[in-house]
Amino acid sequence: MECRAGCGACCIAISISSPIPGMPSGKPAGVRCLHLRADGLCALFDSPTRPAVCKAFQAEEMVCGASREEALALITALENFSAP
């Protein structure tokens, strides 16, 4: 599956524990990454400072669903399930 252009659900729903430029403590789940642009694309996408977890994320139908709203719901559910 190709990433849905402008979706950005993975840049909001997941937590990131590693430092991100401008977010030295990472990013909590449900918080919009400060690098998610208004058009729903990542400003760090081609940058070497893009976090490894973001580089490793692969769009899949079971995670991303059929819409941005479904992706937010599915990724949030997975995040909640995996929380300590």
Tell me the layout of helices and strands.
Layout lengths: L9 H4 L38 H5 L4 H4 L3 H15 L2
Pfam family, one: CxxCxxCC
Protein name: YkgJ family cysteine cluster protein
Task: Report the sheet-strand fraction.
Answer: under 5%
pLDDT averaged over residues: 93
Question: Ranges with pLDDT <50 over ≥5 residues?
Answer: none
From the alpha-carbon coordinates, what is the Rg to the nearest angstrom?
Answer: 12 Å
- Secondary structure tally, helices: 4
Let me know the largest β-sheet. none
What structural class results from the helix and strand content? mainly alpha
Roughly how many Å apart are the termini?
A: 29 Å
Envelope shape: globular
Number of strands: 0
SSE topology string: HHHH
Number of domains: 1
Relative helix content: 25-40%
Q: Can you walk through the features of this model?
A:
It comes from Candidatus Moduliflexus flocculans. This is YkgJ family cysteine cluster protein. Pfam families: CxxCxxCC (PF03692). InterPro entries: Puta_zinc/iron-chelating_dom, UPF0153_domain. With 84 residues, the protein is mostly helical. It has one domain (9-82). Helices cover 33% and strands 0% of the residues. It has helices spanning 10-13, 52-56, 61-64, 68-82. The protein is globular, with a radius of gyration of 12 Å. It starts with 9 loop residues before the first helix and ends with a helix.
